Amino acid sequence: MTIGTTMTTTMTTVLNQALECLQASQRPLLIAHPRPDGDTVGCTLALRLALIALGKTPRIACVHPLPGNLTHLPGAEAFESAIPEDADIDLVVAVDLSDLSRTGGLYQPAWAERYPLLVIDHHATNDAFGDVNLIEPEAAATALPMARVIRALGIPLRDDIATCLLAALITDTRGLRTETTTSAVLRFVSELVEAGGNYLGVMQRTLDAVPYQQMKAWGVALSRLQLEVGIAWTTFPLTEKQALGIEDHDDLDLGNMLSQTREAQLFATFLEMRDGTVKVSLRARPGYDVAWIAKQLGGGGHTQAAGYSLPGDLDTVVRDTMALLRQELARPH
Ligand code: 5GP
Ligand code: MN
Prior knowledge:
Layout (H helix, E strand, L loop, with lengths): L8 H16 L3 E4 L6 H16 L5 E3 L17 E2 L10 E5 L15 H4 L2 E5 L10 E4 L7 H10 L6 H14 L10 H12 L4 H9 L4 H12 L2 E3 L2 E6 L1 H7 L9 H5 L7 E7 L4 E8 L6 H6 L3 E2 L3 E7 L2 H17 L3
Parallel strand pairs: 1-2, 1-4, 2-3, 4-5, 5-6, 8-9
Antiparallel strand pairs: 7-8, 9-10, 10-12, 11-12
Bound molecules: guanosine-5'-monophosphate and manganese (II) ion.
């Protein structure tokens, strides 16, 4: 089976180091990022199943509950929301996290002295915060380096593992439509389906599974939609979230929805949070780049999808972000 992208020698060396970490571990802790998405959850669950098949006892954790469209994945009920500092673990694996703050406070500083930290990710903005960093910035999803790891562990990419990897790939590519969805990625998807991955089930239960409340939230966000030359953006004030019963950890997936606006090349959503911050999601059409903006403002992500949280009121965060988006639009493309 060919997995998405070709491997360089450096990647092969790092893959071997990642394998050594996992093979030496009996009780690894796998961490998914806050406001968890299909990639972080699907990859965490796939690796968990592979490690169980090897006779190990992995734990999996995420500070936030899984959104309803991911709870059907095999093993989803095993997620824990907090891990005590003195937990009986011997390795930490960060899955789809671009920096240590993305554990959302789950990672205990004391662990740095005690356990190796393995990072498996695909964010261009990843700052290589682990002891071993398996990072493939050009990969469509963390599912690709993760698939490599699982296969190298000697576990076949089939059935439930294939379904988890499909969920990761399909959600992170918004249904196989990002710039990173190469023919090799499509071939890999096809191979996962042949190996028993539930393609239609994943499509139906992850992408075509927007809760009613979220649909209503989209309505509110769309009613506030603004279009400046080339930039489509909207805000979601706290009062409106409260009226709809939307929690801060609910990922409304507004960025992806907005990015369908034909007249725009860049897209931004601004969600007011209960802790006084504003959560910004940026999207860009192929050829445009929002990763540098997110990085500059303390967040991270990919050229086409990035985000960050800033303290301050909506108007200020909108103004500061729009200034950078206009800069990006003015760059020669
Ligand atoms: P979203 O805007 O949908 O939450 O996230 C889009 C992309 O940006 C994802 O790849 C996500 O990992 C990344 N991202 C979003 N928010 C943050 C953030 O606060 N910090 C970092 N490092 N990455 C983020
Ligand atoms: Mn991802």
